[in-house]
Amino acid sequence: MRVFLIVLDGVADRPSPKIKLMTPLQYAHKPSIDLLAAGGVTGIMDPVAPGIPVGSDTGHLALLGYDPHVYYTGRGPLEALGAGIDLQPMDIAFRCNVATVSDDWTVVDRRAGRISDEEAEQLSSVLVNLSNRLSLDAEVMFKHTVEHRGVLVLRGDNLSEKVSDVDPHKEGVKVQMPRPTDSSENARRTSEVLKEFLIKSKEILENHPINIERRKKGQKIANALLPRGAGRLPNLPLISERFGVKGAVVAGGAIYKGVCRAAGMDVINAPGATGTINTDLESKFRTAIDALNRYGFVLLHIKGTDSASHDKNPELKARFIEKVDMTLGKYLDKIPSDVIICLTGDHTTCSTVGEHRGDPVPILIHGQGVRIDEIDRFDEFACSKGGLGRIRGLDILNILFDLANITKMYGE
Questions:
Q1: Which candidate in 205, 326, 369, 374 could, as Cys together with 223 as Cys, close a disulfide (CB 3.0–4.6 Å)?
Q2: Which fold has domain 2-72+235-403?
Q3: CATH 3.40.720.10 placement within the chain
Q4: Measuring CA to CA, how many Å separate 7 from each of 11, 38, 364?
């Protein structure tokens, strides 16, 4: 048997007055997802612990059974892995925003006016050889991922992840240049390397043709990098070692690819998978279901639900859930009968406040041997009465691989 885990990012929510005091899952018409719930077992889950909001990085670590308190080394290295960078053990990696800042480094827009992939890619290309112009002996790599996002990697001797975030996480405040967060010489040196790179990169980006054109159009320019989440490569027990199966992920965003790659899973790129609300859902489902012929475990990640919540648009979130449901309905009969299907989210993203929250997330499991409960729809309230009860995200893979008759017995 095989396991198919479908993750709708940030799908759980709170009731919103914009949609008749319902959650987007309640408001959406989703017959295919509800069909899976009616023929399976449901419940709610806390990714790490009740009331603890998690990021997409820590949330996905938990879904794969890795306690973030033990294994989390920062978002940066996971983003870098997902961007296709082969990290070395001593590399320091950062998650990075391409942003708009004023002359005095006050943040105007953390997302540079939602700059396009094409523009961001062209801007990042001019930073490739910038390391050669640094006075300090270190290699610095920047790679664009999706929209305004990218990764920054420092490579060299005597570097440390003990440096502060440059990104202030809000607009209208000044950027704080990197500083060491411990007293080591390595941390001091790393903060100096990073500071020099940021200053030189701003000088180059200011007058790039892309930004000259954006100024003419009255658009916000993308003239600064805001790194955060410094860390080193995590050392995770591999999925293949834990369960004896090969795993694969189909996702658009770098962070999801990176978490799975750190767990030893293969990354399969679906055509048209953008990591945004405009992703090609049919391509992603087709690619993931095809992968079930070659892998014992496939994770399909879908981002649009989270994006709509961050934009505080519960109606858009509900409409996107309906698009997912319609696409799933087209492919349900193509999923082999011996596959255990699980559909859930990695965390709650509240569309009222536009942030991740610590509310539990609904989960359904469907397949041969599942003890079917009496719940016939998939949402936060219905699933709270389901047969799984309230579980931890950390336990999901153990449950799924047990249902697939793969988990080994503990003891004799």
A1: 205
A2: Alkaline Phosphatase, subunit A (3.40.720)
A3: 2-72+235-403
A4: 9, 19, 11
